TrEMBL record:
Residues 286-405 form the ABC3 transporter permease C-terminal domain. Belongs to the ABC-4 integral membrane protein family. It is a multi-pass membrane protein. This is Multidrug ABC transporter substrate-binding protein. The lineage of its organism: Bacteria, Candidatus Portnoyibacteriota. The keyword tRNA-binding does not apply. GO terms for molecular function: transmembrane transporter activity. Its main location: membrane. It comes from the Bacteria. The chain crosses the membrane at residues 21-42, 280-307, 328-361, 373-395. It is found in: Cell membrane.
Length: 412
């Protein structure tokens, strides 16, 4: 008996009870669907985060206050006041950081903005005029503030499109004054609708000079970040070393293990994000794979029931010359056919749902999310499905092959 004939016989056997076959593969379908969605959405999330990091610019490094977090409990360590104006002045000296072309202090927080009887709580960013170049955001209306306005604690602001909509509606916001913490700020620019970029939603921000933000809005004398632009990518490592040396001198630190700051580069961020997202994706895929094992057990149970129900059929085939190997092959092929079919359906369903979620995120929620078809997960899904069919189909197939023709024919 040829393999082709055994396959046709197996498919015919499955077709005799379509509803049972469909329910049998349900566990496999769910498992493969879950794996496809986890892998696809995991890759989409990784691409989104890496895109946010890369959008800042490859020649930019960030100096963050506090010790570098090594776990969840260290996250609060970054909220410190270790970066002061003396550090900004030291890093601005070409003698200390010769390859740094621009240094931008950054402070931020959430405050209530008011215009007449309308109010909205945006994120207030205190920066210099250099923010536009770093984040590639420029006013659609109006202008950026000047260095003179930064040094003179200017009461000027650039607002995001959402802030403009909430406070001014369809009215013109230019040269109007909004109140933040009792202080009036003249609107000199309105950003185009941009959404999330570099981990900042620029539609919901109010941007003011950092000097004004420190003095009148947050009442602080430290910075939340120092953003440094390097003249070329080749000098990033040298600049990182210069920044560390300068800040250690400024903070009287002799032991690097006691640094009260750390530096983030794009390469470091990309490596960290890639590691985290890959581990999370694999972990979730492993959890989803448990349903494949459950589905395999279900297939074994159903195949055992099928063997019992088809005892007379097995006896008849053996009496007509079918060997134990023929019966074993037939039932193994039935199990593999069930799991492979479940795998194909799971891949199609998982891809469709992933595409649907990506479409909703990108078109309805305005998140820069790209659909990714995980070819590796699809190939793995088919392979795993077939292997599960073999593993969990062996026992029922052997039980069928061992039946005696005479006893099988007498079975009622």
């Amino acid at each position: 008996m040829t393999l082709n004939y055994s396959l046709k016989t197996a498919i015919a056997g499955l077709k005799t009870n379509k509803s049972r076959s469909a329910l049998t593969i349900l566990g496999i379908v769910i498992g493969i669907t879950a794996i496809m969605m986890v892998m696809s959405l995991g890759q989409g999330a990784q691409d989104l985060i890496l895109g946010q990091i890369q959008s800042i610019g490859s020649k930019v490094v960030a100096v963050v206050p506090g010790r570098q977090p090594k776990g969840m409990m260290d996250a609060l360590a970054t909220f410190t006041d270790s970066l002061k104006n003396k550090d900004l002045e030291a890093l601005s000296s070409k003698a200390n950081a010769p390859y740094a072309t621009k240094i931008m202090p950054l402070v931020f927080g959430s405050e209530l903005a008011i215009f007449e009887n309308q109010s909205y709580r945006p994120t207030v960013f205190g920066v210099t005029d250099f923010f536009a170049k770093i984040y590639d955001v420029y006013p659609e209306q109006g202008r950026n503030f000047t260095e003179e306005e930064v040094q003179s604690f200017g009461d000027v602001t650039i607002i995001g499109s959402k802030v403009k909509e909430e406070l001014f509606g369809n009215s013109d916001a230019m040269n109007q004054k909004i109140k933040i913490k009792g202080r009036n700020f003249r609107v000199i620019g309105v950003l185009a609708k941009k959404g999330q970029s570099s981990f900042i939603n620029f539609d919901t921000v109010v941007i003011i000079p950092y000097t004004t933000a420190q003095q009148y809005i947050f009442g602080i004398k430290y910075f939340n970040r120092l953003v440094v632009e390097v003249d070329s990518e080749a000098n990033i490592e040298k600049t990182v070393s210069d920044v560390k040396r300068t800040l250690r001198d400024s903070h009287n630190i002799t032991d690097p293990d006691k640094d009260d700051f750390f530096i983030e580069t794009q390469a470091d961020a990309i490596k960290t994000v890639g590691t985290i997202t890959n581990v999370l994706t694999l972990f979730l895929a492993a959890v989803a794979a448990i349903s494949l094992v459950v589905g395999g057990v279900g297939i074994m149970n159903i195949m055992l029931v099928s063997v019992t129900e088809r005892t007379r059929e097995i006896g008849l085939r053996k009496s007509l010359g079918a060997t134990r190997q023929n019966i074993l092959t037939q039932f193994l092929l039935e199990a593999v056919a069930l799991t492979a079919t479940g795998g194909i359906i799971g891949i199609a369903l998982g891809s469709f749902l992933s595409f649907l979620i990506s479409f909703v995120l990108s078109n309805i929620l305005s998140v820069n999310w790209q659909f990714t078809f995980p070819f590796s997960a699809a190939l793995l899904g088919i392979a795993v499905s077939a292997v599960i069919g073999l593993i969990f189909g062996i026992y029922p197939a052997r039980q069928a092959a061992k039946k005696s023709p005479m006893e099988a024919l007498r079975y009622e």
